[in-house]
Amino acid sequence: MKKRGMNARIQALRELSVNTQPHIDMERAKSETETYKKYEGQLSLPELRAQVLYDYFSTKTLYIGDGELIVGEKGDSPQAAPTFPELCCHTVEDMHVMNDRELINFTVKEEDYKYQEEVIIPYWEKRSTRHRIIENMTPEWKKCYEAGIWTEFMEQRGPGHTVGSFKIYEKGFLDYKADIEEALSKLDFFNDPEAFAKRNQLRAMAKNCDAIIILGERYAAYARELAEKCEDPVRKEELLQIAANCDVVPANKPQTYWQAIQMYWFVHLGVTTELNPWDAYSPGRLDQHLNVFYEKDVEDGILDDEKALELLECLWVKFNNQPAPPKVGITLKESSTYTDFANLNTGGVTPTGENGVNNVSYLILDCMDEMQLLQPSSNVQISRKTPQKFLKRACEISRKGWGQPAFYNTEAIIQELMNAGKTLEDARKGGTSGCVETGAFGNEAYILTGYLNIPKIFELTLNNGYDHVSGQQLGLELGNAEDFKTYEELWDAFAAQLKYFIDIKIAGSNVIERIFAPLLFIQSNASMRTSVSPEFESAMTRSSEVMKPRSPCNNDSGLMAVLAIPILDNVPAILLATIRLLPTPVNITLPEHFEITSQNDTEFCSMDSDRYLKLSASEVRHSFII
């Protein structure tokens, strides 16, 4: 099998990444539990959350692998998955499922079962957000959830996909701390009733700045420690340069291309460690962010394309090293281990509307072509101004058939964002993230709250709202399949059932957003969490508003998109399966059709229309298993 990577270093790092067995790392959970036991009730909730990150980054195991040029792991080593008991507290059975399931599994150490049972579960079981969510849902919501009408993402993750912006590269976290101190000094406790909440939030922001700064300082010291022991002069020099980079970032803004990539990666670790943001944080327009550093370093004679590509490939390995935190219950059993989602947008246009393709854009294409990793997920934005050379190179990679890059229409993205009320400049800066939402990068999150099971709802429509699987009445009593005389009547009943279930889901989601906002101070969306909020525009001036679910920092379409996209995709298929099982010349009423197809037989699937018409209901048995 061909080894992938531009040189022996990258090939070794990639091979380690793809062949290492994913494992559970309890270090974060232990640190968080100790912090909560020490400070709960003494600190405000946002400050407590910040203290959790600070304590963990102050003590967590550091990892610098052989040959690495970009440093930092979310856990103790590659393919380590921390747990987030404040979100969902895994049962011991969950832990065994992680370790024992047939699909790709997480290895769990024997001592971790005991620690989960004796320490984590007693403390977190009824403190977790998942517990609070389930306890506060209506009986109707719970019945629908248990019957599989929808899934609820928020029971096991933090809210949202979110994306970094250019701000990461323009300021260091010491600069953010100075901005925060200025904002604190301007609080008006006499006239502003929210001044106290703003103060707590700003203090939390400052503490999280300290957390990420101390992580960089620790990596600088660790790299120097390794350099002192290293006998290879080339590797020693690399380790010293890593240390020098970590002296600069994240405390200060990056000065070089190498430092800019390392800066992003420290921010990525901060975001995905403070709270699991639906397994997704993305760098956004990485080519445009990095190009200014690339051009300066090339001009200064300290960078060439070979070195620039090598650093990108090191970053690709880092993305692939991060397995998504494990889920709970049936979702855990049925979902294989996968990596955190990161979606890179390459090309498109600049904030001023010019062609956004640059030298780094082509390097990213070469990187994804060479590495062929599942993560990061890469797409190209194609605009009217995209050079043919770039489009052709992207097509050359796509035709190899391994799934990347995806192709998106820049003008369509911009129009969609402007339709949602974004400015033209923010729309041009935006793009797609996660799997897949559009958003104004650096300014909002895309809150995802679950999948709606549209086929299941259609099945209930055919059965008077009754669920034969769970044996209970879930939907409205609008009639059985044989009661609908026309397809229009069927559609109207289906639409009514759909609205009924969506209303229950949205009402529950509104409650869940309020549970999240004060409980963990995730500020109702992943993009404005305390660990990353200094990065976002006007974060400090909106430090109380981010607690509100309908704040300008949120993209409410995230919820509706998750519900609407399956409708658009699945309903036509469902109705076609119902209406067009026969060629259009065949004349059969809807009740006759449902009578014939009311039972189960796979033979029906391959029948021709003539034979279908000759068979009686007792001879033809088929149901819609959806």
Overview of the structural elements:
This protein has 626 residues and is an alpha/beta fold. 51% of the residues lie in helices and 6% in strands. It is built from 24 helices and 13 strands. It has helices at residues 8-19, 27-39, 45-59, 92-100, 110-124, 129-136, 139-147, 167-170, 173-185, 195-229, 233-248, 257-274, 286-300, 305-320, 329-334, 359-371, 388-398, 410-419, 424-429, 454-461, 487-519, 557-579, 590-596, 609-614; strands at residues 23-25, 80-82, 161-163, 281-282, 343-347, 377-382, 406-409, 431-433, 437-439, 445-446, 466-467, 472-473, 554-555. The strands form five sheets. The chain has a four-stranded mixed β-sheet with strand order 4-3-10-13. Strands 5-6-7 form a three-stranded parallel β-sheet. A two-stranded parallel sheet has the order 1-2. A hairpin with a 3-residue loop joins strand 8 and strand 9. The longest helix has 35 residues, at 195-229. The radius of gyration is 26 Å and the shape is globular. Residues 520-533, 541-547, 556-572, 579-586 and 600-626 have low confidence and may be disordered.
Task: Provide the fold topology.
Layout: H1 8-19, E1 23-25, H2 27-39, H3 45-59, E2 80-82, H4 92-100, H5 110-124, H6 129-136, H7 139-147, E3 161-163, H8 167-170, H9 173-185, H10 195-229, H11 233-248, H12 257-274, E4 281-282, H13 286-300, H14 305-320, H15 329-334, E5 343-347, H16 359-371, E6 377-382, H17 388-398, E7 406-409, H18 410-419, H19 424-429, E8 431-433, E9 437-439, E10 445-446, H20 454-461, E11 466-467, E12 472-473, H21 487-519, E13 554-555, H22 557-579, H23 590-596, H24 609-614
Parallel strand pairs: 1-2, 3-4, 5-6, 6-7, 10-13
Antiparallel strand pairs: 3-10, 8-9, 11-12
